[in-house]
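Work Package 3 committed the consortium to producing structural models of liganded targets before the mid-term review. Because experimental data for this complex are still outstanding, the team generated a predictive model from sequence and the ligand definition alone, so that downstream docking and mutagenesis planning could proceed in parallel. The input record is reproduced below exactly as it was submitted to the modelling pipeline, together with the SMILES string for flavin-adenine dinucleotide.
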Amino acid sequence: MVDQEGEQSLGGQAFWSFGGLFLVDTPEQRRLGVKDSFELAWQDWQGTAGFDRLEDEDAFAYRWAKAYVEFAAGEKYSWLKEKGIKLFPVVGWAERGGSFADGHGNSVPRFHITWGTGPGLLEPFLKRVQSARVAGLLDFKPRHQVTELIAKNGTVVGIAGTILAEDNTPRGQETSREIVGEFYHYADAVIVASGGIGANLELVRQNWPSRLSSPPQNMIAGVPAFVDGKMLAVSEKVGGASLIVIACGIIRKG
Ligand SMILES: Cc1cc2nc3c(=O)[nH]c(=O)nc-3n(C[C@H](O)[C@H](O)[C@H](O)COP(=O)(O)OP(=O)(O)OC[C@H]3O[C@@H](n4cnc5c(N)ncnc54)[C@H](O)[C@@H]3O)c2cc1C
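The resulting structure, written out as tokens with the ligand in place, is given here.
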């Protein structure tokens, strides 16, 4: 496992998150009298996504979304509980949207808040990473920035990139991009989990939806600097598909 940031940043954005989890038809919802189901959640999801290019651009997004809603209505709850994650008893309303079942957004509350928010959510996963390292099952290489996916006969067989200088800047702050070496690693399977584009305002502008008019001149990124979106182009070079969703809030001046 490689990451362009140091050990102190392990867990990425999840550390900063509220730990709000999308879950469907849970004991917490039922206790509050909320009637939810996979069917309703999938209808809500499709109402927001507006999939209309199932033959090409939307094909993977549709399959991913359906599998994710099935997971959220199925084993996700017991899987999280098994890991020791506890939930706040009040279920919230993030992404409420129009709040009707035939429009966009959630039509019932589904935002389950983790006790301890982001750090509480990360804790069991970080413990697992550390015990795998101690057991010699996981080799973690911090400050390794991937710049290329190595492909052979249409299959990704490895990664290549630059080793960045050690930097002990606290979690969440921008770190140096000074290059001190190069690396190559080969593997049977390569999984890219490099996050979005939120701190790369140039990429945000390039991907700005035309229906929202032109992008604002001044924008504030709500994510750490490592959310640079560079791996999207690297992945697309070897045939990867990406889905970019622009989420923005508007702050009035004055
Ligand atoms: C303040 C805040 C609150 C949030 N609240 C919620 C919430 O309540 N509920 C919710 O569902 N979501 C929330 N989110 C969003 C959620 O935290 C993120 O969507 C999620 O954590 C992203 O996970 P990820 O693994 O895809 O990417 P990231 O967490 O961004 O991790 C990507 C990792 O890849 C590394 N990386 C990137 N490029 C390279 C490269 N080229 N080479 C090597 N390493 C690389 C990065 O350094 C990073 O460690 C919130 C986010 C923020 C910032």
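Reviewers should note the following from the model. Residues 2-5, 9, 12-14, 16-20, 145-146, 193-195, 222-223, 226-227, 230-231 surround flavin-adenine dinucleotide (CB under 6 Å). These observations will guide the Year 2 experiments.
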